[in-house]
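Hi C.,

You asked whether I'd gotten around to modeling the 78-residue construct. I have! Everything is below, sequence then structure, no commentary in between.
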Amino acid sequence: MPATQQSGGGSRNQVLVPQARAGLNSMKMEAAQSLGVQIPADGYYGNVTARETGALGGYITKNLVAIAEQQLSGGIRR
């Protein structure tokens, strides 16, 4: 099987629910502001450190898990 490589940079991630794109972008901006990470206006992250992008991803993931837990627990009474 030949390996495929991405050319031209950019993200390979696909938004599964197109209506969620604005909310995800908003969450990314909020995370960046909270962590003091400058989001590049042109979308090129080559000058952003791996530590900064990892921190953004971790922050966003933590928030998405919290949102899912709230939604899931809303239907379960204990």
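If it helps when you're writing up: Residues 18-74 form one domain.

Thanks,
B.
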